[in-house]
């Protein structure tokens, strides 16, 4: 019996997103991120850990929450405050922000 899967397109959006690549090092670890500002995620930005391969949609409150950073990106407990503050400097952002140019 053959089964045919139909594909229904839910959306197709193209935009010129702003991306910033940032990296920091502490006494304990190195952290490399891509921060993608887009109008698609209700004020949240896409943060991708280039070091570990994890990604998440985060807002400023999320990146200042140490538990979120430890759980999402495996950031060392001793580093969560400084990394959270550094990431928060990029949030909120809009696709029109000039910081990523």
Adjacency order of strands in the biggest sheet: 1-2-3-4
Number of helices: 3
Poorly predicted regions are 95-101
Net shape: elongated
Fraction of residues in H or I helices: 10-25%
The strand count comes to: 4
Radius of gyration: 16 Å
SSE pattern: EEEEHHH
Average pLDDT level: 87
* Beta-strand share of residues: 15-25%
Cα separation of the termini: 54 Å
Structural class: alpha+beta
User: Biggest sheet, in brief?
Assistant: 4 strands, antiparallel
Show the helix and strand layout:
Elements: E1 18-25, E2 30-37, E3 45-49, E4 55-58, H1 60-63, H2 66-73, H3 80-88
Antiparallel strand pairs: 1-2, 2-3, 3-4
Give a short summary of the structure.
It contains 3 helices and 4 strands. By secondary structure, the protein is an alpha+beta fold. It is elongated and about 60 Å long.
Q: What are the salient characteristics of this protein?
A:
101 residues, four-stranded antiparallel beta sheet, disordered C terminus
Describe this structure as you would to a colleague.
- The chain has 101 residues and is α+β, with helices and mostly antiparallel strands.
- Helices cover 21% and strands 25% of the residues.
- It contains three helices and four strands.
- It has helices at 60-63, 66-73, 80-88; strands at 18-25, 30-37, 45-49, 55-58.
- It has a four-stranded antiparallel sheet.
- Residues 95-101 have low confidence and may be disordered.
């Amino acid at each position: 019996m053959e089964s045919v899967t139909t594909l229904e397109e839910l959306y197709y959006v193209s935009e010129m997103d702003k991306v910033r690549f940032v990296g920091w090092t502490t006494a304990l670890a190195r952290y490399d991120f891509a921060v993608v500002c887009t109008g698609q995620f209700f004020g949240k930005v896409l943060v991708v850990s280039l070091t570990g391969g994890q990604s998440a949609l985060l807002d400023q409150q999320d990146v200042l929450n140490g538990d979120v950073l430890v759980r999402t990106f495996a950031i060392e407990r001793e580093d969560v405050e400084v990394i959270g503050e550094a990431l928060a400097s990029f949030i909120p952002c809009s696709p029109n922000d000039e910081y990523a140019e």
